[in-house]
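User: Batch of two.

Assistant: Item 1 of 2:
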Amino acid sequence: MKIKAIYLYLSLALWTVLLLGLLKFTQFNTTGLGITLVTLTFLLVPGIFLWRLSKIEAESLAVKMLYVISFGFSFYFLINLLGIVLGLSLLQVIWIILILGLILLALACFFDFKKTWPLNFEGLKSYSFSDWFLILLALGGTVVGLASINAQIDKIIGDGMFHLALLQKVVSADNLNPHHLWVTKTTSLNLVYSFPIWHIFVGEISKILSINIFTAYTQILFPMAIITFMVVFAFLKIIFKERFFVLTLYLTFLVFLFSGIFYALIPLRAPDSFDRLLLLPLVLGLTVEYLFSKSDKIFPRALLVSGLAIFMGLIHFTQLVDYFLVLLVFLVLFLIISKDKLIIKKLGWLILTIGGLTLPYLLIFQGVNVYHFFLYNAAAYTGDNFVNKSYHDANIIYLYTVCSLPILAILIKSKRQLIFLISIPIALLLVSWQIFGLRTFFLKYLGEIFTIRAITDIPGFVFLGVIFLTIILILSLVLAKLPKLLQYLLYTFLAVLTLVSVIFFNNSLNIFVDETIFNPKNLFFYEFFEPIVVAIVAITLIFFILIHFYYKKELIITEPKNKFSFTFFTFLLFLILSLPYWPVFQKTITNSLNNSLLSDREIPYFGDVGRIGGQQTVTFLGNLPPESILAFSNVNVSQIALLYTKAYVFEYPYGVTDFTASKTIYDPTMTDEERLQFIKVNSIDYIVTLKSAESDLFVNSSHFQKVFENDYKYEVKTKKTSYQKEGDFIVFKYLP
């Protein structure tokens, strides 16, 4: 069956028009479903057009979707970057997106006018019961994951207040000049958040849907979670290809997250987590597809991979450094194991492209900042006193990763993509663990955050899945050697045993699973980790020698011959692994107010505005001149206030318990002359006081005018009780 490509393009255009009509004449824009559909359409439609225009071929639907997502993100991030560099307004950037989107539609229709897209469903006829069962199991697990995320969508973690403050600047600034997007007027942007292209993307969704930043920032999580599930599946498909293995590894991903009720994906909207959970797997999958594809057309793929990697670095720089280290480790391993000149050539172009596009910027425009960054870290380094310096204080998932490496190593001759997969943990464990003394180097010059977080960039679920996959294959192979009657008896026995365990020994089974598989500090595993690794290495080595030198065969990864047996053990394993967490999942869903995607999700406020005096203070802050600089004596109040004003704060209020310079302004021992000089030098326009002792310093001075006062009460809640406190929010304007 074939469909003309132009019909598909026109269908996309019609869908977009219908969606815009719904947004115009209904309240669809504030529902979870409306925000999700708009975001996915906004991202994927340009991605489809660009993928078709690039003429990059892909062997499976999953890989095609990876390209579409990659082109979609690249389209917006490039335009957002140009908006920052050229100092365009957010509205101008949105108009550019609209115009370019129409141009892409016209070009795609022109070049694909006579072309057809094959829709081949013949392959589905060969799917057995086992195939469909695993597919439905994976789809069911995905639905459970999305339901868990939807139930927790209002939780803001991962420096949410800080990123909302940046988002407030994006939607309220006259233009997207970098210095207009920071929270402090007098401080240059730091190396990590210099180009907030992700914040601008969320701002664009906010403007298109006519919703405030709080609604946009919370609700962007659901569509990004959908994209994350798609990216992870495509990444696994590129590495392993075999359907049964991909589905088993994807189920591992789901059950691993289910053990925490998918809480690990809740910070997905924060740049660091967005990079780590979505963009990094996207870039890694795209890299493997680029390196190991049979095509010798280097330029379009290399440009896409390097461009997306650089965008990842612009969003949060540490993931780009990690990615570059993975490429270097892969280069070393590949040169040792294989001599494929085309892959080495592709890798060389990729490294040169990324280096050529990033190093000039860092050296020319950020050279001084980079130099001071290294000096500051070196001066602040007092020794290695941080977590993850060995397996003793690392999460158990990374110990599973180490245990899986010997298993993967004996398979790399038949599946060279595994060399790249192995390179990921090796590179990042070299950073996070004290191997060859590199951890000390990274701690000293790149800092604590980069060094201790590198280990979390390892997609550990893949390596845990490899262990599960090995166990399932061994069990199914052993069972296949038995007579058919004995096989059926064992199937029945294991099914009954599982059922009895679930009904009569549920609590004991749950405790056993939780404590032995997912417990971050499994005492047995940590106590005997080194001999376990030695045993796995020895067993895999013996197995390799027997196969290659005694039986003189090649180890080839193929689909399991006994599919029913493989599916049976897969189902039992993941049923048992997920059982302990069903009560928590049910409680999470029951306690949630967000079960329906059709419900109104609009959030008028974020943060406890009662702590700053409620609507009265919010209105005052919103009416302050955009170029104003405010000085606060309290970090928490400053963070909340920044969400409701276009003004700036005098001092960066995040990651510190107390201000440093701000405390000087409110110091009663400071003379009036010293205070006035300090305020003048730092161009401070407004002084915010929160108690009478502070306001007394300014109330009788001719250099300050009281412009706002709000006496209020607010509720303080603790785990055990709640009580009311009185507060005041008094603002003085400095009169030069």
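Item 2 of 2:
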Amino acid sequence: MAQGGRAEQEKRLLLWHRAASEADFAREAARWGQQVATRAVVAGGELVLRAGACVCAAFDASELDDAVELAIDLLAEAREEAEELDVAIALALGPIARSGEALEGAVLDRAQLLSNRAAAGELVLDAGAYGELEERLLFARSLKAGRVRGEAVDLAQPYRRDCRSAIYGLPAPALPAGAVFDRRQALAVLQASEPRLLLRTSDRVAALDCIERLRAELSPPLLLPCAPRDGGLQPFSALQVALRRVDLGGALAVPEACEPLLSLRRGGGHDHHTVGEALSGLVEGFPGAWIVLEAVDGVDAASLLAITEVIMDADENGCALLLVLDEGAPIPPQLAMLGDYAELPLEPLSEAQKQRVVAGLLDRDETDDLVRRVAQLAAPGLQDLLVAVRTMLCAGDLIAGPEGVRFRTAPRYATRPIPTEALLRECLAGLPPPARRTLETLCVAPLGSGPSVVQRMAELGAVDAGELRQGLEGLRREGWLDADGRLGALEMPIRNVVQDTMAPARAAELEGVVASHLTAELQSLGPHAFGAAERAVYLRAAGRGGEAANAILDAAEAARHHGFERSAVRLAALAMKRDDSELVKERARDVVAGLDPTATLGGDSEPPMLSERPPPVSLPPSAPPVAHAVGSAIAALSVGDAQAAEDALDGAVVAGWGRSAAQRLTAIAKLAGGDLAAARRALERAYDGNGGGRPDPRHGLTAALVQLQAGDALEAIRLALDALSQARHGRQAAGEAAALHVLSACYRSLGRTREAERIAAAASGA
């Protein structure tokens, strides 16, 4: 007994075996009970109770897997050696108190209740044991014994691991005739003299799948798949991802392209001219190359401009440009100047087409009810259907047997398609540990990383070398990796799911490994390396915020050194957001001293012919830097250049302008750019940054403009009236005039022109 008379408790696993029989079989029952008790003790259990054929044994909680195997073996033997007995076993996990020689605890009652309620030949787990094993075992039904709930193991197919082999060698989904996009038109465009193909879709995975199918059919000599990264702050970040994804061995045959591009792939810094020349040299060395922009709206400006110039110079060798854009999203001005694009919308699969794809994957007739039910569970994309089939096979919903695929129990039901990321999450459960740890390493590695980076991470301790070999083999066998050993079209969904489900300690460990790898890589590149921005992302994720802020400033210095003034200012502003210490603020101001955040330099922005430059700010040179930056922002807004306004505001923050004021003007910039949701978020940040000070009419006027843009003129009028009241109370003539102008705009939007003109006249006299 523990001090104070309380029994000591420990978490144990109870195996409760019951066997009922007719009186004529009492001797057989006793013999069988003795055999069960002996097996339990030999397996490491402590005999708690034995009465005839009823046996209870306690195991250490860590022996759960062994106890399950013992129970399954005992039930199989009972069917052969004691078929006259009604045998069932329950496993329950929970705290047990030891009082002298006796054991006490609710777990004993749960085990006995579930054993008694189980059907003959069943193995039932209580909630505690089920929670530990639900990802490793398959279950046939649920049952209740009073208030106690149990789950019966499917003894015909108990282990999930035995189901996963069904996905080995699963074929790639076939594209139904006439589905998704016009294949003939796409082929004709890509074989034309100036191939410009625009794929319109909100499903990035479907677009990448289509591009891969076109690539397999036409076999371009080189494909550069650019993808956005880190908010597009680092110059050439999208190009860096593309260079990581391709084998640049062939670039060695193009000397003018070799050194700068190999350096850029590792995170080196170069000016726009050097990168443009190298990229042109690479493309010229591979006539008919393809450049793919996977998500155009997130690609950094430097990459966009370099690609535009390369395409303009490479028309004679047929370099193809493929864009993936959301429906309704505009083509960036850099790319619009290239001329017309052949626009192909990607249509979702119909239900009939989905069934045709599933039928091909499962080798069944497309009219089969099983095919129809499986097709209904997936989103309407080829990769979505493949993930659904893989998941249902891994989860044991579908069983592949000699007579083909069948449902193991009742068909899974859902009122709407299951999101692909939810299916991936389920398929991830039960992945063998070496494959899981290898997949985690792949998903935390920098976007676009190849086998050499993953191998380097393994050397730094991310995963054991033996596990890496075993894991890569398992991932290839299960279809997680494509022929190139990469995650393919599903890379982003897989990365999202794996990173979301990783244990925090494991995530921090891997992020620290990547940070160490990038640190060593950048040291070999010398000063002014763009890759410092990516290193900062991993330092911050690993909990090293101070180092991260300084790494961002290293990237800002690199951007400035190579002529990317906008990027330098934006990176400096980001560093201050990450760390508001005086040392970081001082260094940030030094980095951007004398820079014009709206300047068009080094390919960091649109060329002058693409957008009207903001009018010059008419301020004396002696005016504070804040005044110049804010003036530049207002000038940019006056010509509709929302991006230039945001860049200028970043410069104002670095120069010391209040964050609330900057966020209010940022909200206006977002409105000018048509992003209402972002405008609202900026306004919320402005309110949070006010620090509980006195009411500010400028905040109310900004909110009124946001509401007016959202179509709620009445709420906009209320906010403008509040701002007018605050301005008059504070005797702020300029604020009063501004409030009246906003009110005039509100009335004009309601069609009340006469009132709007009267209010505007009052504003002019205020």
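Residues 1-5, 600-620, 689-694 have pLDDT under 50 and may be disordered.
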